[in-house]
Structure formats: structure tokens, C-alpha cells
Amino acid sequence: MNKEEFLKELEKSLAQLNEKDRQDALAYYEEMIADMVEGGKSEEEAVASLGNPSTIAASLLAEKTAPSMDSKDYHSSEEITQVRVFGEDAAVVIHGTSRTGDVHIHYQKNLHDHVSVNKENGVFTFTQRIDHFFMFPCFSIPRQIDIDVPKNYQGSLEVKTSNSHIEASQVYGLESLALKSNNARIIIDHISSRSLNAISGNGRLEIAEAKGSEGVIETSNGKIEAKDCEFAKSFSATTSNGAIRVEALQSDAISLETSNGAISGTIIGDMREYAVKSGTSNGKNSLPSQFSYPDQKKRLSAFTNNASIALNFIAK
Amino acid sequence: MDIQRKKGILEICVLSALTSAPSYGYQIVKEVSKCITISESTLYPILRRLEASHAVSSYSVEYEGRLRKYYCLEPLGKKKIEDFLSEEKEMEHIYRYVEGKANHE
């Protein structure tokens, strides 16, 4: 078979595809054959090494129909104000991009996954779960859901997953960002959202360069690190078994609470502006246990059980 | 190798082939073949997928009177490679554990 016959055959076999996809596939094979010929093969050899056009078409069509769940597009700017993503055993990576347009969710569907998508009243919901009946946990392959947030999306984003981590970076101007992972870390970097909520059951929480009005960070078995965060109204960090470290934290109402870890770091501001409450049972405390007088608008509370508290106030 | 797993690994290999410079189909097959078997017809859907997920972008260049489509690595693609490498570290740990148990028997 020569090139022309091959392409004609392929075009016929791809009749079910839309025009654009079909032309794209044909262009790919045409270019490939030309390059193979240039590389020293005869046209017939090149065509023969590509395989049977109808087999190629069949696998392309299968690809097109089966994992069409892979990439979901929808218009965030017009109708969607809330995006919810629920994963199981899947890492979730949220990434802001400089383009405008739609929020993209990309997921490589695995054999025993159920994926469903729902759009209703401005709420877009993406759910992925694993059919455990068929699944031995030890054969589990790494799963990842990618959420690509364009700069014009300013609604809410809610993400829940189990047994795997969540990362969010370079997303600005959200109304709210709520992240929940029950057994792994959450990493947040360069985010602005009016409200931020990050809850992990058994993992550490790392936040850097986050801005907003209210921030709530919670884990039960991990340390918390917040670097260069600014939450105008309030910021709270709670863990039961880990240290809390803040660096250059800025907020009018700060609450830091742990039971088996040190609390340390720096807060931007003057301590005299803050009504302070603090305490530890077995460690040094750099803060007064209670310090307040009228007209103090800002609040700071820091409590731990078996470790020290070392918080310093610094100028901006 | 498990099909899904191979699919994921091929994707990473294709992305890696683009780290130093943008490249086109034929060249990518040649490059990736150095480490894993890949056919021209396997590559095509991978490129489509990577492009749809913004891991790579593409542009066409005229070459000897015909068009050649170049693929270019995007930040998201770079990130996929980084994630893969960090995951492999975790996997290595698991391999060693499994290996240790198997040898112990």
C-alpha cells in the first residue's frame, strides 16, 4: 500500500470522528510517513510499519469514546460559580494559569474508576471513586486529578480526596477555597481567596504566600507551617500532634493551637495591639498568659501542652 | 507491564523527550524508543491527550513544502515530570520493602 492508499483507507475508517479530529489524525500520519521516507524508508515500508489503517482507526475511536472523561471543559466565566471535585485515592493538583477561559479538570480514568460529572445551578461537580469490588488496594496505581484554574475564575473551589495529597498553587482571586484530604499532606503556595479552609486528617499542612480574609487550617496528626500569610480578618491553625510554625503572619485575629508540639515564629505587628491569651503546661512561653486592655481590636491566642511557645512580633 | 501503567510511563517519556527543545512526531518516536518501545500509532493519542490537558502545546512549521507539527513542553508538563520523579522515590522505597520481604521468605 502506498501513502495515498493508506491515508484514503484511514480517512474512510475514521468517518465517525468529527472533521477536525479526522483531519488532525490524517495530518499526523501524512507527516509521519514523509519523515520516515526522509529517514531512508521507502513509502511502502513506511506505510507497512504503521500497521493496518482500520486497526489504527479502531483504537483512535476507542480512545475517543472511552476516556472522554479525561478532560472536562465547561464555562466557568458565565455560569459556574462553584466547582467541587471529589476524589478517592487520588492526588489533586490545583494550578492557576495565566490564560482566560474555562476551568479544566483532567483525569486519567483507570480501569475500575467511576467518574461522574454534574452541572446544576452554577455548581459543577466532578466525582471519581474506585470500584473496590474489583480492586486490590496493593495494585492501586497513582491517580491524579489536575485542576487547571484560569485567571478569570473567581468562584469557589472545593476539593476532597482520601489517602493522597492536595497541592494548590498560583490561584488568585477566589471567593473560597476548601481543601480536605483525610490521610495526606496539603500544600498551598501563592493563593488568594477570600476564605481558605484546609483540613487534613493525618498529614502536614504547608502554606506559603496565602492571602485572604479568613483562613482556617486544621490537621490532627501533622505539623503546620505558614509562611508569609496574610488573612485580614482571622487566621486559625489547629493540630493535635505537631508543631506549628508561622513566619511573618499577618491577621487581626490569630489562633494557634496544638497539644504536642512547639508553637514558634513571627507575627507582623506590635504586640500591644493584640489582646493575648496563651498557655503551655510543660514548656517555656514567650507570650504573656493574659494581656489585654480596652480598645485592643486584635486578638492572639496560642495554646500547647507539652512544648514551648516562642512567638515574636516583627515590623512589616 | 500493566497497560494503564505503561500508558502513564509513555506519557512521561514523551514529555521528557520535549524537555530540551520542541520536537515533532517522527523525532519523538526515535527519542522515546531509546528507552521504551513506542510505535507511531501509540504516540498519536498520547500527544492528543497531553495537548488536551495543556501539558504540551503545538505549532506547525513549514518544512520542505509540507507542514511539520512541533510539540512544546508547557509548565504543567514539566510539573508532571517532577511529580513522576518524586513518586518514583516513594515507589523505590516500596520496591525495597517488597524485595526485602520476598528475600526473607
Chain-wise SSE layout:
The complex is a heterodimer of chains A (316) and B (105).
Chain A: H1 3-13, H2 19-38, H3 43-50, H4 53-65, E1 71-73, E2 82-86, E3 90-96, E4 104-107, E5 113-120, E6 123-130, E7 143-149, E8 156-161, E9 166-181, E10 186-200, E11 205-219, E12 224-227, E13 230-239, E14 244-251, E15 253-257, E16 263-268, E17 274-279, E18 290-291, E19 298-303, E20 309-314
Chain B: H1 3-17, E1 23-24, H2 25-32, H3 40-52, E2 56-63, E3 66-73, H4 75-104
Description:
The complex is a heterodimer of chains A (316) and B (105). With 316 residues, chain A is α/β, with parallel strands linked by helices. Chain A has 4 helices and 20 strands. Chain A has a 20-stranded mixed β-sheet that branches. Chain A is elongated, with a radius of gyration of 27 Å. About 4% of the residues of chain A have low confidence. Chain B has 105 residues and is α+β, with helices and mostly antiparallel strands. Helices cover 63% and strands 17% of the residues of chain B. Chain B contains 4 helices and 3 strands; from the N terminus they run αβααββα. Chain B has a 3-stranded antiparallel β-sheet with strand order 1-3-2. In chain B, helix 1 crosses helix 2 and helix 1 crosses helix 3. The longest helix of chain B has 30 residues. The two termini of chain B are 25 Å apart.
